[in-house]
Write a structure and sequence with these properties.
With 499 residues, this protein is of the alpha/beta class. The protein folds into two domains: 265 residues, Ribonuclease Z/Hydroxyacylglutathione hydrolase-like (Metallo-beta-lactamase, Chain A); 183 residues, Rossmann fold. It is built from 14 helices and 22 strands. A hairpin with a 2-residue loop joins strand 7 and strand 8. The radius of gyration is 22 Å and the shape is globular. The chain binds zinc ion. GO terms for molecular function: hydrolase activity; RNA endonuclease activity.
Length: 499
């Protein structure tokens, strides 16, 4: 594994090593060597099941203190969640991001630290009873690490304005994915590079579209949905309304697992519109996610980034994220009490892939009842609990027991905050003739995207896990790194959405 050292010049090479989101959709972390400087773009946590999450415990394959700067594209946990670990292990340099990303990162990282510590205490209690407490790994980081990390944030990135970071000119542009999300134009002596971060769905319910990029030499682009086209917004909204009406008739609980940032606000805004217009009955909505409630405050603060009707509502002093029947659940005791609530109600809780959080106890109490509806509005990694339910597993293991899946499961595809195939190709349209490097996608999805790039006369390559590549070099003859195994296409096993 190459270790960066100060003073080594990689002349004319634009080197990148990806230690996350390479041949997978989580744990984004890319180490760039430009002009002899080492810039880390994103430092995300692996999420979506034990196998992936084990990678969070691997040591960094470089010396954290040797980095010149960190750049963040947006505040999702899979893009910022290992930052406190980087700081715990010695990084003391600046972390550049947009102001909303800094605000959301605080909420996201404090929540993550709390979950780390709670999970550790729980594991320790269990291990003590078995006399195996020595085997429990410590939390990855705690609140103190997060506060040290927050002190390093430099919320100086503004869309369209260039700043110089460690000798590299950095221009962030609107990515349209979540509040504050940016893609980055990096200009160094070697050439011009775009780091896409996560790009938005151009038919999003809240975000403005991404800004068309300028011509560059290389693009590192996310490919979460590079093999499919999302259902349009109007259709998605109609499908959601229908699922809700059907579910209300069942007279049971309607569970909507949702990520706290962007998806929760999109769903709340859509519910408000549909209840106000009479498209769906006004039934109680419980937002059982203190983190989503906190994140919503930032949407008021940075409302200018949102689509015109939402922006207007905010300017008029209205609350576009509050259906009239909304109850915000704060304490875990209140959350538990919801299990005894009679009658139909919508319960929104995290996390979106159902791998942890309050949604789990709601699932334990309701998933086995035929009157329950589970409405899935987010991406489900195939190995996550949500992924197993979507794949049709009859029984799932959660909170220490087996629970039968008898609820009606609705998967609503179009709420995705991610670009689909058409969006990605539209993004590349204005970027000139760059070398296109694919990250943040399942291998078979990226593989299916390669021929589309070739049709447009673009050289495309799948970024290998961990191995360095020269972004301006020739790439791989087939577009695939040596030894890469491409699994067969599998249409099942995941809903749409995505973080
Ligand atoms: Zn994201």
């Amino acid at each position: 594994m190459a270790t960066p050292h100060r003073g080594i010049l990689y002349t004319l090479a634009m080197q990148m090593q990806s230690f996350g989101a390479a041949c997978t959709v989580t744990g984004s972390m890319h180490l760039l060597t430009l002009g002899g400087r080492h810039l880390l773009v994103d430092c995300g946590l692996f999420q979506g099941g034990d196998e992936l999450e084990r990678r969070n415990r691997e040591s960094f394959p470089f010396e954290p203190a040797s980095l010149d700067a960190v750049l963040l594209t947006h505040a999702h946990l899979d893009h910022v969640g290992r930052l406190p670990l980087l700081v715990r292990l010695g990084y003391r340099g600046p972390v550049y991001c947009t102001p909303p990303t800094a605000a959301l990162a605080e909420t996201v990282l404090l929540d993550s630290a709390r979950l780390q510590v709670e999970g550790y205490r729980q594991d320790l209690r269990r291990a003590r009873r078995q006399g195996r407490e020595d085997e429990v790994p410590p939390p990855l980081y705690d609140e103190e690490d997060v506060h040290r990390t927050l002190a390093l944030l430099r919320p100086q990135l503004e869309f369209g304005e260039t700043v110089t970071v460690a000798g590299v000119r950095v221009t962030p542009q609107r990515a349209g994915h979540i509040l504050g999300s940016a893609y980055l134009l990096l200009e160094a002596p070697e050439g011009r590079l775009l780091m896409s971060g996560d790009l938005g769905n151009r038919e999003s319910g809240l975000q403005l579209d991404f800004t068309p990029p300028p011509a560059v030499d290389a693009v590192v682009i996310e490919t979460t949905y590079a093999n499919r086209t999302h259902r349009g917004w109007v259709e998605t909204r109609a499908e959601f309304a229908q699922a809700l009406r059907d579910s209300v008739r069942q007279n049971g609980k309607i569970l909507i697992p949702s990520f706290a940032i962007e998806r929760a606000q999109t769903i709340l805004h859509t519910l408000k519109e549909m209840m106000d217009s009479g498209e769906v009955p006004r039934i109680p909505v419980f937002l059982d996610s203190p983190m989503a409630a906190r994140a919503t405050n930032e949407y008021f603060e940075y409302g200018d980034e949102l689509i015109p009707p939402v922006r207007e509502a905010l300017r008029n002093g209205e609350d576009p994220f509050r259906p009239s029947t909304l109850h915000t659940v704060t304490t875990s005791a209140e959350s538990q009490r919801l299990n005894r609530y009679d009658g139909p109600a919508i319960i929104m809780a995290g996390n979106g892939m159902m791998t942890g959080g309050r949604i789990q106890h709601h699932l334990k109490h309701h998933l086995w009842k035929p009157s329950t509806s589970l409405i899935i509005v987010s991406y489900q990694s195939p190995s996550s609990l949500g992924g197993r339910i979507v794949a049709g597993q009859g029984t799932v293991h959660l909170m220490g027991e087996d629970v039968a899946v008898r609820a009606q499961v609705h998967t609503i595809g179009g709420f995705s905050a991610h670009a689909d195939q058409d969006d990605l190709l539209a993004f590349l349209d204005t970027a000139g003739k760059p070398h296109v490097w694919l990250v943040h996608g399942e291998v078979n999805v990226m593989d299916a995207f390669l021929p589309l790039l070739a049709e447009r006369g673009l050289k495309g390559d799948i970024v290998p896990d961990r191995s360095p590549v020269d972004l301006l070099g020739a790439g791989f003859s087939s577009g695939r790194p040596p030894g890469l195994v491409v699994p067969p296409q599998n249409g099942k096993g995941q809903g749409e959405g995505g973080e």
